[in-house]
Design brief:
Largest sheet: 11 strands, antiparallel
Shape: flat
Strand order of the largest sheet: 2-3-4-5-6-1-7-15-14-13-12
Protein backbone atom coordinates (compact mmCIF):
# COMPACT_ATOMS: atom_id res chain seq x y z
CA UNK A 1 0.00 0.00 0.00
CA UNK A 2 1.44 3.41 -0.99
CA UNK A 3 2.13 6.15 1.56
CA UNK A 4 -1.29 7.38 2.56
CA UNK A 5 -2.62 9.51 5.41
CA UNK A 6 -5.46 7.66 7.14
CA UNK A 7 -6.05 9.97 10.12
CA UNK A 8 -4.97 13.29 11.60
CA UNK A 9 -5.95 15.58 14.46
CA UNK A 10 -5.37 16.59 18.07
CA UNK A 11 -4.51 13.63 20.29
CA UNK A 12 -3.95 15.44 23.59
CA UNK A 13 -4.78 18.90 24.87
CA UNK A 14 -4.01 20.75 28.10
CA UNK A 15 -5.76 24.00 29.00
CA UNK A 16 -4.95 26.62 31.65
CA UNK A 17 -7.72 28.63 33.31
CA UNK A 18 -7.69 31.94 35.15
CA UNK A 19 -10.42 34.43 35.99
CA UNK A 20 -11.62 36.56 33.08
CA UNK A 21 -12.46 40.23 32.89
CA UNK A 22 -16.05 40.94 33.88
CA UNK A 23 -16.50 42.87 30.64
CA UNK A 24 -14.88 40.37 28.23
CA UNK A 25 -14.12 36.68 28.88
CA UNK A 26 -11.44 36.75 26.14
CA UNK A 27 -9.36 39.04 28.37
CA UNK A 28 -7.56 37.39 31.33
CA UNK A 29 -7.77 38.88 34.82
CA UNK A 30 -5.54 36.56 36.90
CA UNK A 31 -6.02 36.53 40.66
CA UNK A 32 -6.19 33.90 43.44
CA UNK A 33 -9.03 31.42 43.66
CA UNK A 34 -12.13 32.00 45.74
CA UNK A 35 -11.39 30.77 49.32
CA UNK A 36 -14.94 29.41 49.67
CA UNK A 37 -14.44 27.16 46.65
CA UNK A 38 -11.08 25.94 47.93
CA UNK A 39 -12.65 25.17 51.31
CA UNK A 40 -15.37 23.05 49.70
CA UNK A 41 -12.78 21.18 47.63
CA UNK A 42 -10.69 20.58 50.74
CA UNK A 43 -13.72 18.98 52.44
CA UNK A 44 -14.15 16.61 49.47
CA UNK A 45 -10.44 15.80 49.45
CA UNK A 46 -10.46 15.01 53.18
CA UNK A 47 -13.38 12.65 52.58
CA UNK A 48 -11.44 10.94 49.78
CA UNK A 49 -8.41 10.59 52.07
CA UNK A 50 -10.57 9.12 54.83
CA UNK A 51 -12.07 6.55 52.44
CA UNK A 52 -8.71 6.05 50.70
CA UNK A 53 -10.38 6.21 47.30
CA UNK A 54 -11.89 8.78 44.93
CA UNK A 55 -15.28 10.12 46.00
CA UNK A 56 -18.05 11.41 43.71
CA UNK A 57 -18.74 15.13 43.54
CA UNK A 58 -21.71 17.15 42.30
CA UNK A 59 -19.75 18.16 39.22
CA UNK A 60 -20.04 16.41 35.87
CA UNK A 61 -18.39 16.38 32.47
CA UNK A 62 -19.73 14.71 29.33
CA UNK A 63 -22.56 13.26 31.40
CA UNK A 64 -20.17 11.55 33.81
CA UNK A 65 -19.49 12.29 37.47
CA UNK A 66 -16.21 13.97 38.36
CA UNK A 67 -14.43 12.24 41.25
CA UNK A 68 -12.25 13.96 43.83
CA UNK A 69 -8.99 12.07 44.36
CA UNK A 70 -7.25 11.78 47.75
CA UNK A 71 -4.06 13.39 46.45
CA UNK A 72 -3.33 16.61 44.62
CA UNK A 73 0.07 17.76 43.51
CA UNK A 74 1.47 18.21 47.03
CA UNK A 75 2.21 21.37 49.01
CA UNK A 76 4.91 22.56 46.59
CA UNK A 77 2.74 22.04 43.55
CA UNK A 78 0.48 24.84 42.32
CA UNK A 79 -2.25 22.21 41.96
CA UNK A 80 -3.79 21.15 45.29
CA UNK A 81 -6.89 19.26 44.12
CA UNK A 82 -7.49 16.63 41.43
CA UNK A 83 -10.88 15.82 39.92
CA UNK A 84 -11.31 13.47 37.00
CA UNK A 85 -13.35 10.95 35.08
CA UNK A 86 -12.57 8.95 31.94
CA UNK A 87 -12.72 12.02 29.68
CA UNK A 88 -11.13 14.86 31.61
CA UNK A 89 -8.64 15.63 34.37
CA UNK A 90 -9.07 18.88 36.30
CA UNK A 91 -6.31 20.18 38.59
CA UNK A 92 -7.17 23.13 40.81
CA UNK A 93 -4.80 25.41 42.70
CA UNK A 94 -4.79 28.61 44.72
CA UNK A 95 -3.54 30.79 41.85
CA UNK A 96 -1.46 32.87 44.28
CA UNK A 97 1.78 32.65 42.26
CA UNK A 98 0.64 32.73 38.64
CA UNK A 99 -3.03 33.68 38.79
CA UNK A 100 -3.96 30.46 36.97
CA UNK A 101 -6.41 28.52 39.10
CA UNK A 102 -7.02 25.35 37.07
CA UNK A 103 -5.33 23.11 34.53
CA UNK A 104 -7.37 20.69 32.45
CA UNK A 105 -6.34 17.74 30.34
CA UNK A 106 -8.80 16.43 27.77
CA UNK A 107 -8.24 12.71 27.20
CA UNK A 108 -7.64 11.28 23.74
CA UNK A 109 -10.73 9.07 23.92
CA UNK A 110 -12.81 12.23 24.39
CA UNK A 111 -11.02 14.38 21.81
CA UNK A 112 -11.23 12.01 18.86
CA UNK A 113 -15.05 11.62 18.77
CA UNK A 114 -15.63 15.38 19.28
CA UNK A 115 -15.13 18.51 17.23
CA UNK A 116 -12.16 20.39 18.75
CA UNK A 117 -14.05 23.65 19.20
CA UNK A 118 -16.90 21.80 20.93
CA UNK A 119 -14.45 19.94 23.15
CA UNK A 120 -12.81 23.18 24.29
CA UNK A 121 -16.20 24.83 24.82
CA UNK A 122 -17.45 21.90 26.90
CA UNK A 123 -14.34 21.99 29.10
CA UNK A 124 -14.61 25.77 29.45
CA UNK A 125 -18.27 25.46 30.46
CA UNK A 126 -17.62 22.64 32.96
CA UNK A 127 -14.79 24.49 34.71
CA UNK A 128 -16.89 27.66 34.69
CA UNK A 129 -19.67 25.79 36.50
CA UNK A 130 -17.16 24.53 39.05
CA UNK A 131 -15.86 28.06 39.75
CA UNK A 132 -19.27 29.68 39.45
CA UNK A 133 -18.14 32.29 36.93
CA UNK A 134 -16.75 32.76 33.43
CA UNK A 135 -13.04 32.01 33.04
CA UNK A 136 -10.31 32.77 30.52
CA UNK A 137 -9.00 29.62 28.87
CA UNK A 138 -5.48 29.32 27.46
CA UNK A 139 -3.71 26.52 25.58
CA UNK A 140 -1.01 25.01 27.78
CA UNK A 141 0.10 22.09 25.59
CA UNK A 142 -1.16 20.41 22.44
CA UNK A 143 -0.19 17.22 20.60
CA UNK A 144 -0.91 17.11 16.87
CA UNK A 145 -0.60 13.85 14.97
CA UNK A 146 -1.05 12.19 11.61
CA UNK A 147 -1.36 8.44 10.97
CA UNK A 148 0.43 7.19 7.87
CA UNK A 149 0.65 3.87 6.06
CA UNK A 150 4.45 3.66 5.81
CA UNK A 151 7.08 1.48 7.50
CA UNK A 152 9.54 3.82 9.23
CA UNK A 153 11.39 0.89 10.86
CA UNK A 154 13.77 0.86 7.87
CA UNK A 155 14.33 4.61 7.95
CA UNK A 156 17.86 6.02 8.02
CA UNK A 157 17.41 7.34 11.54
CA UNK A 158 21.01 8.58 11.87
CA UNK A 159 21.06 10.70 8.68
CA UNK A 160 17.54 10.77 7.30
CA UNK A 161 15.95 13.14 9.82
CA UNK A 162 16.82 16.84 9.95
CA UNK A 163 15.53 18.93 12.83
CA UNK A 164 15.71 22.60 13.68
CA UNK A 165 17.22 23.05 17.13
CA UNK A 166 15.72 26.46 17.93
CA UNK A 167 12.43 28.26 17.49
CA UNK A 168 12.57 31.25 15.18
CA UNK A 169 9.23 31.51 13.36
CA UNK A 170 6.35 33.91 13.58
CA UNK A 171 3.12 34.22 11.65
CA UNK A 172 1.27 37.12 10.11
CA UNK A 173 -2.40 37.94 10.68
CA UNK A 174 -3.44 35.78 7.74
CA UNK A 175 -1.72 32.84 9.50
CA UNK A 176 1.00 32.54 6.85
CA UNK A 177 4.44 31.24 7.75
CA UNK A 178 7.27 33.80 7.87
CA UNK A 179 10.86 32.67 8.57
CA UNK A 180 12.59 34.98 11.01
CA UNK A 181 16.10 34.23 9.71
CA UNK A 182 17.51 33.08 6.36
CA UNK A 183 17.50 29.32 5.90
CA UNK A 184 21.29 29.11 5.71
CA UNK A 185 21.71 30.75 9.11
CA UNK A 186 19.44 28.28 10.93
CA UNK A 187 21.01 25.55 13.05
CA UNK A 188 19.98 21.95 12.54
CA UNK A 189 20.36 18.64 14.31
CA UNK A 190 20.68 15.41 12.34
CA UNK A 191 19.14 12.06 13.35
CA UNK A 192 16.81 10.91 16.07
CA UNK A 193 17.61 11.54 19.74
CA UNK A 194 16.35 8.11 20.70
CA UNK A 195 15.45 4.92 18.85
CA UNK A 196 12.80 2.64 20.38
CA UNK A 197 12.88 -1.12 19.86
CA UNK A 198 10.67 -4.03 20.87
CA UNK A 199 12.31 -7.43 20.52
CA UNK A 200 14.76 -5.91 17.99
CA UNK A 201 12.40 -4.40 15.37
CA UNK A 202 12.45 -0.60 15.55
CA UNK A 203 9.10 0.68 16.79
CA UNK A 204 9.74 4.41 17.01
CA UNK A 205 11.94 7.48 17.23
CA UNK A 206 12.01 10.47 19.57
CA UNK A 207 13.14 14.00 18.79
CA UNK A 208 13.58 16.22 21.82
CA UNK A 209 12.43 15.40 25.37
CA UNK A 210 9.30 15.81 27.48
CA UNK A 211 10.69 19.12 28.76
CA UNK A 212 11.37 20.52 25.27
CA UNK A 213 9.24 23.42 24.11
CA UNK A 214 8.59 21.45 20.94
CA UNK A 215 9.32 17.77 20.36
CA UNK A 216 8.25 14.95 18.09
CA UNK A 217 7.76 11.20 18.12
CA UNK A 218 7.31 8.77 15.24
CA UNK A 219 6.09 5.33 16.29
CA UNK A 220 4.31 2.22 15.08
CA UNK A 221 0.74 2.92 16.17
CA UNK A 222 -0.49 -0.50 15.00
CA UNK A 223 2.09 -2.27 17.18
CA UNK A 224 1.26 0.02 20.10
CA UNK A 225 -2.42 -0.92 19.88
CA UNK A 226 -1.59 -4.62 19.63
CA UNK A 227 0.79 -4.71 22.60
CA UNK A 228 -0.16 -1.89 24.96
CA UNK A 229 -3.56 -0.38 24.27
CA UNK A 230 -6.01 -2.86 22.69
CA UNK A 231 -8.99 -0.78 23.79
CA UNK A 232 -7.93 1.97 21.36
CA UNK A 233 -8.42 -0.23 18.31
CA UNK A 234 -11.32 2.07 17.40
CA UNK A 235 -8.64 3.78 15.29
CA UNK A 236 -9.00 0.82 12.92
CA UNK A 237 -12.47 2.09 12.01
CA UNK A 238 -11.10 5.55 11.22
CA UNK A 239 -8.25 4.12 9.16
CA UNK A 240 -10.55 1.81 7.18
CA UNK A 241 -12.86 4.71 6.38
CA UNK A 242 -9.87 6.50 4.85
CA UNK A 243 -8.51 3.68 2.72
CA UNK A 244 -6.52 1.44 5.09
CA UNK A 245 -6.32 -2.16 3.84
CA UNK A 246 -6.70 -3.62 7.35
CA UNK A 247 -3.28 -5.29 7.31
CA UNK A 248 -0.48 -2.76 6.73
CA UNK A 249 1.10 -1.25 9.83
CA UNK A 250 0.15 2.37 10.46
CA UNK A 251 2.77 4.72 11.93
CA UNK A 252 2.00 7.91 13.81
CA UNK A 253 3.89 11.19 13.43
CA UNK A 254 3.19 13.34 16.47
CA UNK A 255 4.36 16.85 17.37
CA UNK A 256 4.13 18.07 20.96
CA UNK A 257 4.07 21.80 21.62
CA UNK A 258 4.24 23.35 25.07
CA UNK A 259 3.33 26.85 26.15
CA UNK A 260 6.82 28.25 25.45
CA UNK A 261 6.66 27.09 21.83
CA UNK A 262 3.13 28.38 21.31
CA UNK A 263 4.14 31.74 22.71
CA UNK A 264 7.28 31.95 20.55
CA UNK A 265 5.23 31.19 17.44
CA UNK A 266 3.42 34.52 17.85
CA UNK A 267 0.41 33.09 16.04
CA UNK A 268 -1.65 36.03 17.12
CA UNK A 269 -3.64 39.08 16.17
CA UNK A 270 -3.77 42.36 18.04
CA UNK A 271 -6.09 41.12 20.77
CA UNK A 272 -4.67 37.82 21.90
CA UNK A 273 -2.35 35.02 20.84
CA UNK A 274 -2.57 31.27 20.52
CA UNK A 275 -2.99 31.26 24.28
CA UNK A 276 -6.68 31.92 23.79
CA UNK A 277 -7.87 28.36 23.32
CA UNK A 278 -10.72 29.09 20.92
CA UNK A 279 -8.19 30.36 18.35
CA UNK A 280 -6.50 26.96 18.22
CA UNK A 281 -8.80 24.99 15.85
CA UNK A 282 -8.48 27.40 12.93
CA UNK A 283 -4.67 27.51 13.25
CA UNK A 284 -3.86 23.81 13.37
CA UNK A 285 -2.86 23.73 9.71
CA UNK A 286 -0.24 26.48 10.03
CA UNK A 287 1.20 24.91 13.19
CA UNK A 288 1.45 21.58 11.37
CA UNK A 289 3.11 23.40 8.48
CA UNK A 290 5.88 24.68 10.71
CA UNK A 291 6.34 21.37 12.51
CA UNK A 292 6.50 19.14 9.44
CA UNK A 293 8.19 21.51 6.98
CA UNK A 294 10.54 23.62 9.10
CA UNK A 295 11.02 21.89 12.45
CA UNK A 296 11.47 18.27 11.31
CA UNK A 297 11.89 16.62 7.91
CA UNK A 298 12.53 13.07 6.73
CA UNK A 299 14.86 13.33 3.73
CA UNK A 300 16.73 11.28 1.16
CA UNK A 301 20.49 11.68 1.87
CA UNK A 302 22.72 12.69 -1.04
CA UNK A 303 26.33 13.77 -1.48
CA UNK A 304 25.37 17.44 -1.10
CA UNK A 305 27.08 18.71 2.07
CA UNK A 306 24.19 21.08 2.76
CA UNK A 307 21.61 18.76 4.27
CA UNK A 308 18.87 21.39 4.09
CA UNK A 309 18.89 20.93 0.31
CA UNK A 310 18.29 17.17 0.52
CA UNK A 311 15.02 16.10 -1.07
CA UNK A 312 12.07 15.43 1.21
CA UNK A 313 11.12 11.73 1.25
CA UNK A 314 7.81 10.92 -0.48
CA UNK A 315 6.37 9.56 2.79
CA UNK A 316 7.16 12.84 4.52
CA UNK A 317 5.59 14.82 1.71
CA UNK A 318 2.37 12.99 2.55
CA UNK A 319 2.87 13.94 6.22
CA UNK A 320 3.37 17.60 5.31
CA UNK A 321 -0.02 17.63 3.55
CA UNK A 322 -1.79 15.63 6.26
CA UNK A 323 -4.25 18.25 7.51
CA UNK A 324 -6.89 18.04 4.81
CA UNK A 325 -10.50 16.74 5.15
CA UNK A 326 -10.80 12.99 5.68
CA UNK A 327 -13.85 10.79 6.19
CA UNK A 328 -15.28 11.39 9.68
CA UNK A 329 -17.20 8.76 11.63
CA UNK A 330 -19.02 8.84 14.96
CA UNK A 331 -16.49 7.30 17.31
CA UNK A 332 -18.29 7.82 20.63
CA UNK A 333 -20.32 4.56 20.68
CA UNK A 334 -17.37 2.61 19.24
CA UNK A 335 -15.02 3.85 21.97
CA UNK A 336 -17.53 3.02 24.73
CA UNK A 337 -18.27 -0.46 23.42
CA UNK A 338 -14.62 -1.35 22.81
CA UNK A 339 -13.66 -0.23 26.30
CA UNK A 340 -16.47 -2.35 27.78
CA UNK A 341 -15.41 -5.45 25.83
CA UNK A 342 -11.71 -5.10 26.71
CA UNK A 343 -12.46 -4.51 30.40
CA UNK A 344 -14.75 -7.56 30.54
CA UNK A 345 -12.10 -9.72 28.86
CA UNK A 346 -9.50 -8.60 31.39
CA UNK A 347 -11.85 -9.21 34.32
CA UNK A 348 -12.68 -12.73 33.09
CA UNK A 349 -8.96 -13.50 32.87
CA UNK A 350 -8.29 -12.08 36.34
CA UNK A 351 -11.27 -13.75 38.03
CA UNK A 352 -10.57 -17.13 36.41
CA UNK A 353 -6.92 -16.94 37.44
CA UNK A 354 -7.90 -16.05 41.01
CA UNK A 355 -10.39 -18.96 41.21
CA UNK A 356 -7.72 -21.38 40.00
CA UNK A 357 -5.34 -20.06 42.66
CA UNK A 358 -8.08 -20.27 45.32
CA UNK A 359 -8.78 -23.90 44.45
CA UNK A 360 -5.07 -24.69 44.59
CA UNK A 361 -4.91 -23.28 48.12
CA UNK A 362 -8.09 -25.12 49.13
CA UNK A 363 -6.60 -28.43 47.98
CA UNK A 364 -3.54 -27.69 50.10
CA UNK A 365 -1.29 -30.77 49.81
CA UNK A 366 -3.83 -32.97 48.05
CA UNK A 367 -3.36 -33.41 44.30
CA UNK A 368 -6.12 -31.89 42.21
CA UNK A 369 -8.44 -34.46 40.66
CA UNK A 370 -8.69 -34.20 36.88
CA UNK A 371 -12.47 -34.27 37.30
CA UNK A 372 -12.48 -31.01 39.28
CA UNK A 373 -14.15 -28.19 37.38
CA UNK A 374 -15.02 -24.55 37.85
CA UNK A 375 -18.49 -25.25 39.26
CA UNK A 376 -16.89 -27.03 42.25
CA UNK A 377 -14.74 -23.98 42.96
CA UNK A 378 -17.70 -21.61 42.69
CA UNK A 379 -19.75 -23.81 45.04
CA UNK A 380 -17.07 -23.64 47.72
CA UNK A 381 -16.40 -19.95 47.01
CA UNK A 382 -20.01 -18.78 47.45
CA UNK A 383 -20.22 -18.90 51.29
CA UNK A 384 -16.84 -17.13 51.53
CA UNK A 385 -18.15 -14.38 49.28
CA UNK A 386 -21.28 -13.99 51.43
CA UNK A 387 -19.10 -13.67 54.55
CA UNK A 388 -17.04 -10.97 52.83
CA UNK A 389 -20.14 -9.03 51.79
CA UNK A 390 -21.49 -9.07 55.36
CA UNK A 391 -18.37 -7.16 56.43
CA UNK A 392 -18.92 -4.35 53.91
CA UNK A 393 -20.61 -1.94 56.33
CA UNK A 394 -24.01 -3.58 55.86
CA UNK A 395 -24.05 -2.80 52.13
CA UNK A 396 -25.97 -5.31 50.05
CA UNK A 397 -24.60 -6.88 46.87
CA UNK A 398 -27.03 -4.76 44.85
CA UNK A 399 -25.85 -1.50 46.45
CA UNK A 400 -22.22 -2.41 45.84
CA UNK A 401 -23.00 -3.14 42.19
CA UNK A 402 -24.79 0.21 41.92
CA UNK A 403 -21.69 1.93 43.28
CA UNK A 404 -19.53 0.22 40.64
CA UNK A 405 -22.00 1.21 37.92
CA UNK A 406 -21.68 4.79 39.06
CA UNK A 407 -17.89 4.62 39.45
CA UNK A 408 -17.46 3.31 35.92
CA UNK A 409 -20.11 5.67 34.49
CA UNK A 410 -22.38 2.82 33.42
CA UNK A 411 -25.39 4.68 34.82
CA UNK A 412 -26.04 8.23 35.99
CA UNK A 413 -24.82 9.07 39.49
Amino acid sequence: MAEEIVNYGVDSLWLNFCYASLQDDTVPDPHPADPALLASLLTLQEQAKAEDEPVPTAYRFNGKTLFMYPHGGGMRSPWRYLLRNDDIEVKIGTGKKTGYVAKVRLMAQYLWPHDLTDAIANAWEAVGVLFGCSLYVQVSEVHLCADLVHDFSHADWSEGFIRRCSLTPHFDRQFGFIEAHPEQDAEYLVGADRVHLRHRPITGFSFGTHSSAISAVIYNKSAYIRTKEPQSDYFHDIWRANGWDGESDVWRVEFRLKRDALRDFKIEDVCHGIGYAFDLPERLEVIWQYCSVHFLRYVVPTEDTNRTRWETHSAWQAVQHAFFPLVQIDLAPIVRERKRIVNKERLVQQVTGCLITLHAWDKDRHPCDEGDDLSLVLHRYYPNALEYLEKQKKKSFGRLVQKKQRDYHLIAA
